[in-house]
Amino acid sequence: MQDQFEPLPLIRIVLVATSHPGNIGAVARAMKNMGLHDLVLVNPNQFPSYEASARASGAADILDQARVVSTLAEALADCHQVIGASARLRKVAWPQLSSREVGEFAVRAADVGRVALVFGREDSGLTNEELDQCDKLGHIASNPTYSSLNLAAAVQVFAYECRMACGAVVPQSEGYRYQPATHADMEGFYVHLEQALLQVNYLDPNKHERFMRRMRRLFNRAQPDSKEIAILRGMLTAVIKASNPQ
Amino acid sequence: MQDQFEPLPLIRIVLVATSHPGNIGAVARAMKNMGLHDLVLVNPNQFPSYEASARASGAADILDQARVVSTLAEALADCHQVIGASARLRKVAWPQLSSREVGEFAVRAADVGRVALVFGREDSGLTNEELDQCDKLGHIASNPTYSSLNLAAAVQVFAYECRMACGAVVPQSEGYRYQPATHADMEGFYVHLEQALLQVNYLDPNKHERFMRRMRRLFNRAQPDSKEIAILRGMLTAVIKASNPQ
């Protein structure tokens, strides 16, 4: 269905000094779900680990390829754009983007070269010295009284926005397997309905105009497909036949 | 900064037969981050639990208020719109929305009454019988070869899209604390720059036009603010003064 799925090899996720190994695994899974593969860990508390592998579920390949480095500068050396995730909106001189804008920006920038999305410590985020190495900050709109997302949840949102920015599309579908009914289908149905309702003496011939308008409102709202109209008309045919047995 | 933050009391998260209690905690945290509070658990494997509370972090209140029921119908009884999360795009007669459309739809529908977002089992999602109780399906665009998000990650994405659909806005900011430089500021700067460069004999008076055009391209791209221009001009003043010490 998603023929246009494109991996995003030039968008890197960088985790700085992650405390909980389970979060690294959950990040790997979120990345793979969204088509990201490049994970760099700066001074993780523990890696590799059983917990990370367990939480990664089917995304062990992301962990296997992950690179561990000892400084943020090393993680960013080959990147031409660096976006730091920040739970707080900062009153600083960094350009600040919403998570949606980050997705759009990162995908555009990845046409030119490598882009890093940097995520700080679970408890305290990125230090000012680390932010100095970022070109922009990205911010997820959240509850101001409880704004700090779990690390993997934050990666999920940014990775999701990168995916959406690729033009990820769910096929427009109201779920119909058949062509929508045409205007002529609908008109044929209303004639048939009126006929059936008169036939069964439901409809007062003097009031049928107003009544039929109500029926039109109802059935038009339902936007039936051609198959459904065929079924409804089959029912009406049966009604007429049953009430008028030669 | 987010003055317009509005909680979303009429959007309910329903988890069906969740296996891992840690996921319930992570869901609670994701919900609270995004301003959702109404959690209903249908036949959870284990609840309450230490693991759920640990993963909920500061969102214990969501778990405390969570309701446990034994049938999906009970969880949905007071809802007027029900959206089922589905990892697969289904060839069925359910209207199918992208996660982005789900956010927009749910927030609009919550103006009228209660809306439920329903999430199935970690391993197998929702059964067809459960899908029958949904009005629409919601789908997160993902890697077709690894499409199933962690439960809490999926709730995070849908809850995030509800939040974004409320018009959550990160203040447009290029990070400047000062007014952007005006055109006149910029022109004043270029005159000053040219004067300084001539003064220090850097600029060949015969070639300065072309050179200054390059300078304009450079500095215009940087979109300096008024303070930065003041600083740059201070530097130029210093240069001129230093090279012409009366």
UniProtKB/TrEMBL annotation, chains A, B:
Q: Which residues form the signal peptide?
A: none
Q: Which Pfam families match?
A: SpoU_methylase
* UniProt-listed Enzyme Commission number(s): 2.1.1.200
Please give the catalytic activity noted in the UniProt record: uridine(32) in tRNA + S-adenosyl-L-methionine = 2'-O-methyluridine(32) in tRNA + S-adenosyl-L-homocysteine + H(+); cytidine(32) in tRNA + S-adenosyl-L-methionine = 2'-O-methylcytidine(32) in tRNA + S-adenosyl-L-homocysteine + H(+)
Sorted alphabetically, which keywords does the UniProt record give?
Answer: Cytoplasm, Methyltransferase, S-adenosyl-L-methionine, Transferase, tRNA processing
State the compartments where it is located: Cytoplasm
Q: Where is the tRNA/rRNA methyltransferase SpoU type domain?
A: 11-160
Task: Spell out the molecular function terms from Gene Ontology.
Answer: RNA binding; tRNA (cytidine(32)-2'-O)-methyltransferase activity; tRNA (cytidine(32)/uridine(32)-2'-O)-methyltransferase activity
Q: Which InterPro entries match?
A: Alpha/beta_knot_MTases, RNA_MeTrfase_TrmJ/LasT, SpoU_MeTrfase, tRNA_m1G_MTases_N
Record NCBIfam families: rRNA_methyl_1 (TIGR00050)
Q: What is this protein called?
A: tRNA (cytidine/uridine-2'-O-)-methyltransferase TrmJ
